[in-house]
Design brief:
Mean pLDDT: 95
Order of helices and strands: HHHH
Number of helices: 4
Helix content: over 70%
Distance between the termini: 26 Å
Strand content: under 5%
Structural class: mainly alpha
Number of strands: 0
Radius of gyration: 15 Å
Low-confidence stretches: none
């Protein structure tokens, strides 16, 4: 994510941002494990990091959409 932001993406690029297949798979696995067996401390921390990253991406996308609507 930091590498993506370092290139100073356009609002259009930000709106199109999607997680990789590997990340989607990892998140699905964590969700499933949380429902069935529960997460370890490390996995819980990893999940919290993903949630924070998702929050940042949503903010970036909202701001990008506002810029696109103004132009």
């Amino acid at each position: 994510m930091l590498e993506f932001l370092a290139i100073l993406p356009t609002p259009e690029e930000i709106v199109k941002l999607r997680p990789s297949k590997a990340l989607q798979t990892r998140i699905s696995n964590l969700l499933e494990k949380n429902r069935t067996a529960g997460l370890t401390t490390e996995e819980s921390q990893e999940w919290e990091q993903y949630q924070y990253l998702e929050h940042l991406v949503r903010i970036a996308k909202a701001k990008a959409l506002l810029k696109l609507r103004k132009s």
